[in-house]
Design brief:
38% of the residues lie in helices and 22% in strands. By secondary structure, the protein is α/β, with parallel strands linked by helices. The longest helix has 15 residues.
Amino acid sequence: MSATTTVVLAGVGGQGTILGADVLAKTAMAAGLDVKLSEVHGMAQRGGAVDTVVRFGEAVASPLTDPGHADHLVAFELTEAARMIGVLKAGGRLVVNTRVIDPLPVLIGQVESPEGLEGRLAEEGATFLDAEALACDAGSPKSANIVLLGAVSTGLSFPVELWREVIAERVPPATVDVNLHAFELGRRACGEGGECLL
C-alpha cells in the first residue's frame, strides 16, 4: 500500500455501502493505521446515491479525495460505477457488482436506462462479480456488501483474520456465520491476486 490508500465505495441506499465502509475503516484502525472516513448519504432512504470515502495510512490529513486519486473504487451496482469512475486514479482498481438499479428518472420514464455500461467499464479495467448471487450462496442476499469487501480485500494488505474479527464484531450476532461465509466467497471470486473471476 502507498503512504495513504483511498477506497471509494459507491452504491444506492439500502445496499449496505455505509456498513461496508465502516467495516473497512475499523479493519484499518485495528491494523494500527490512521483512518479518515467521509460519507455522502444523498437520498439514502429513497434509494439515492450513497458514496463513502475511506482513507488510511500512517497519517491521513483529510477524509476527502480529488477526482483521479482513489486507489480503489468498489461499486455496488453498474450505474454508480459509471457515475463514479472519475474518482479512480490511472491504474486504480475497479471492482463492480453486476447488479443494475435504475435511478428514479429511468423508473418514471423521464430518461432511458443507460446501455453498454459493462462494456465501457471493462474498457476502464473493471473486474466484475455477481455479489447478490454469491451472497445468496452464503445464505442471505443482504450480505452482498460483505461479498464486495471480500473482493476488495484481496487487493489490500490487511490479514484475513483481522477482517474476520471486525466483521464478527460489526454485524448482528445472528448473521455472523453468513457474513463470514460471504466474505470468503468474495475473496475466492477475486483470488489472492485481486483479479475477479465471476
